[in-house]
Amino acid sequence: MIYKKRSEPLSLLGLQSLVNRLNRNNIHFKSIEEDLRKRRAGYGGEMNFDKHINEFRPSYPYGFLHDVCLMHNGIYFQMDSILIMPDCIVIFEIKNLGGILTVKANPTQIIQDNNAVRKVIQSPIIELERKKIFMDRWLKERGFIIPIKGMIGLAYTNELFIEGETGTEISFTHELPIKLYNRSIEKELLSKQKISKIANEIKNAHHEYNPFPLTKTMKIVAEEIMPGVICPSCNHMGMKWTRKKWHCTKCSYNATNCHLPLLDDWFYLIDNKINNRQFRAFSHIEDRSIAKRLLKKSDLTMVGKRSSSFYTK
Q: Which residue ranges does the record assign to the NERD domain (predicted)?
């Protein structure tokens, strides 16, 4: 069964907000936009893996956890997916790589040839080995001794060449369910109850990575973040609050809750709290009472009283 589902990464949501609001003249804009593209492609690859691996429904007990981040001795290690089986634990490293891929064993590296552009990329085999070591230590600290295996899943079909024995299974994600079905359980080390216990301990120990606010973690000047309510219909920045609703002066779209994504953007990018004055400046609302009413209806927590009050998620 699935103990932890995959959700859209917070970093992906934050980067989208940053690209939407960062001044295009910022020297880092292009690199941030490219980072967003890569992260979005990576998430798409993981979702593709989830679609295929959902076909794996064995007769024996098992546990799946997706997008897990644990900590051992102060060091975080993130795993795309974990499968707990009666005889072992499998860690999956999912990669969304285009072009022709050549895997070399000594030294361990992957060479990507994409539209005649050839480059060496960081080896997911080494990444996986590191995670296997930390996962093994993390489990032993809790009294669980179980073999740890690793599999690399390529999200989309590539032309793939493997030169030498890497010691790590590399497959396309659509092949993985069949490969898992075809492997036999060597020795039952974990009962259904133990699988459930390990899965729940992993789930409870998961650390959700929170990179916010991005202006601080990425050292971006807050003044370069463009204010204004963004129209959900045409993406025009600068909707006006009139007659108890937001109005887009470009496409005439009207709605009452268009400020909610703006508040998300604030928390993603600027600060983990916001007061009435800051909200008015960021949303271009002039009336303090209107701003107060909108903030109170925004499912936020109010802290403090009167002029010193502020709102948090």
A: 41-158
